[in-house]
Design brief:
alpha+beta, five-stranded antiparallel β-sheet, 34% helix, elongated
Length: 139
Amino acid sequence: MSITKEQWTQVETELSGSWGHVEMLIDGFKVNLHVERVKLLKYTIMTYVNGQFCGKWMIADSEEGKRFFCTKSSFVLSAKHRAELIKIWGGKRCPKAKLEELNKKTTILMPHWSNVKTMRRHFEKNNQSLELVSIGFQA
């Protein structure tokens, strides 16, 4: 059974406030989403799979990381450093191998989300069945 549009609206409402909690069953994994404070006045949606978080899931070849974590990629070298090296190597005449080295990126999987809509797209794209178990803290 898939999550309906109305249920996604309820999930978004719950996770937009502070200290929200949603529990889902996604492809046999129990996924808990908690709104947690990162800094003063900054909140994020933290993902827990089967009630836990493991640092090894942040590596790109883990199944849980690919399915439930947010993909972040960035250049290895800063923009300023890349510009300086291109200037040294001669601008447009810069060798192709050097350009590939300059534009090298690193990818890491982060367990937190800043937006419910991007999280929803990622979950729907990378998983087959999504079921909503509960919204909010149950007494």
